[in-house]
Specification:
Alpha-Beta Plaits; 2 domains; 9-stranded mixed β-sheet; about 210 residues; two-stranded parallel ribbon; alpha+beta
Length: about 210
């Protein structure tokens, strides 16, 4: 029987079921479902939405960059990014030997609040480092790829290091009040929509001939 769940990963949890060091918790501390695997990962110091399934076909489609499914993040950075920095993030930046694909990026007018309809932002434990003389800002970034620590490397490349990173959506899936450490099974309509939204590769993301 196929299983599809979404999980709100807390800070400090590894995106795997096996423990490599006693220092960090793993998915096994929260999810007791056998033979289910994450579709993509979040770094241990990142938070937010994860999708897990034992559906190999769906996992392949969501992991394949040809399909370019969208992932949206709220990103707290040091200092206030200017228009030039945001434009660079949108059009692509060089990280190591790779240039990132175009992304959707906007500067949020204020810190996201728990009282918002989305209700996704919660106090982090431990809290981020705070320096009185350095302001911070929040960005909303939507990517169609997922390289290792990509968001952090992108903001660092334009001079605004990431302090906190929260994934708030994968395709049409959202946390919608799911508390850190909680998970739920997807509904049949959600699973169907997930398949329908990846029925064909994105033309922009297709490999060159």
């Amino acid at each position: 029987m196929t299983k599809h769940i979404i999980f709100h990963k807390p800070y400090g949890v590894l995106s795997q079921f096996t423990q490599e060091t006693p220092k960090h918790s793993t998915l096994k501390d929260y999810i007791q479902i056998p033979d289910i695997y994450p579709v993509g990962r979040l770094d241990w110091d990142s938070e937010g939405l994860m999708l897990l399934t034992n559906d190999g076909k769906l996992q392949h489609r969501l992991s394949n960059p040809r399909f370019g499914h969208k992932r949206t993040y709220w990103v707290q950075v040091e200092r206030i990014p200017d228009a030039e920095a945001i434009n660079k993030l949108e059009t692509g930046v060089e990280i190591k030997d790779y240039r990132t694909r175009p992304a959707q990026v906007r500067l949020l007018p204020e810190e996201p609040q728990v009282s918002d309809a989305c209700g996704w932002l919660h106090q982090r434990h431990p809290p981020i480092r705070f320096r009185k003389n350095i302001p911070t800002a929040w960005l909303e970034m939507t990517l169609t790829e997922g390289k290792n620590r990509q968001v952090r490397r992108m903001t660092a490349a334009v001079g605004f290091p990431t302090l906190r990173l929260i994934r708030v959506s994968i395709a049409h899936l959202q946390l919608n009040g799911l508390q850190p450490g909680e998970w739920r099974e997807l509904t049949p309509p959600e699973i169907k929509s997930l398949y329908n939204s990846h029925s064909a590769p994105s033309r922009a993301a297709a490999p060159k001939a």
